[in-house]
Design goal:
Blueprint (H helix, E strand, L loop, with lengths): L3 H15 L6 E4 L8 H4 L4 E7 L2 E6 L3 E6 L5 E6 L10 E6 L3 E6 L3 E6 H4 L3 H5 L11 H9 L8 H4 L11 H10 L13 H20 L7 H9 L4 H4 L19 E5 L2 E5 L6
Antiparallel strand pairs: 1-6, 2-3, 3-4, 4-8, 5-7, 6-7, 9-10
Helix pairs in contact: 1-8, 5-8, 7-8
């Protein structure tokens, strides 16, 4: 499933294709939404917002299309009405005089009044979003100390969108590594310094992944390893998807376990 940085990158592409232009045609591939096509046709897109893994396409007459890519959803930007060859099902399309923005395979789509969007069940419960809000280290520290989260395992918390928006499986492993957090620890178990490290890691990892094509490893090291011929999946991250590979910091083999029903990678030495 794409994580917050990937959804924000997709939103950037959709916004570039649609913002400020009139939607000459609208298509919904879900029967329950086809009645909205005439409502949205002829309106202009003002912006495309994100909240974690959800996208909000805003129209200038007070309506918003909420969409969540879920596991298989994919946005494709093409020249107007130039559809790709794919077996995916088209769920939502916006066409203007130059471009078509096409959402395939996603089924979690709603059409809402602007004032209703904030009360959508997913949006209402979601945590702070580093890529769409001014999130600070102190805000995250307060969250780590919140009684709702303080005694729950990091490995579960970081996948919960109500804790921090947009964090998924690769960011979970990378944040825990950067903060030196053991795989079974809770916020209540780690030092004050590790809490600060975790807050900084959340801010830095999400922003860096967004700015640098999903790379969460040290950028200089990643570039060096790339020039040495390393494959992307080996230089992209500190630990994620690198089971058996050596830690970039200490040389210890990276381990892999299942936590919250998903694979978690960690360095047994750096995260002891």
């Amino acid at each position: 499933m794409p994580e917050g940085p990937e959804i924000r990158k997709a939103a950037d592409q959709v916004e570039k294709a649609l913002r400020g232009r009139t939607a000459l045609d609208i298509h919904f591939g879900l029967e329950r939404l086809t009645g909205y096509e005439d409502l949205l046709r002829g309106a202009s897109i003002t912006r495309v917002d994100t909240k974690g893994k959800a996208m909000l396409t805003r129209f200038d007459h007070g309506w918003t299309v909420y969409s969540h890519n879920q596991l298989y959803g994919k946005w494709i930007i093409r020249n107007a009405y130039n559809y790709p060859q794919t077996k995916r099902q088209l769920r939502f399309a916006v066409h203007n005089e130059k471009k078509s923005a096409l959402l395939y395979s996603a089924s979690d789509i709603e059409v809402l009044r602007d004032e209703e969007a904030a009360d959508h069940p997913f949006i209402r419960k979601i945590g702070p979003d580093v890529l769409s809000e001014q999130v600070t280290e102190d805000m995250l520290l307060d969250r780590f100390d919140d009684r709702r989260f303080h005694r729950r395992k990091w490995a579960s918390l970081l996948l919960e969108q109500g804790f921090i928006a947009g964090v998924g499986n690769y960011l979970r492993s990378e944040i825990m590594f950067a903060a030196g957090i053991p795989p079974h620890a809770r916020p209540a178990d780690v030092s004050e310094e590790q809490l600060h490290q975790a807050a900084r890691a959340v801010l830095q990892m999400i922003e860096q992944s967004y700015r640098h094509q999903g790379i969460t490893n040290d950028l200089a090291l990643a570039e060096k390893l790339k020039k040495q011929g390393w494959k992307r999946n080996q230089y992209r991250h500190w630990v994620f998807s690198r089971a058996g590979g050596h830690c970039h910091l200490c040389g210890t083999p990276i381990d892999k376990i299942t936590a919250a029903s998903r694979r978690l990678y960690f360095c047994p030495s750096c995260q002891s």
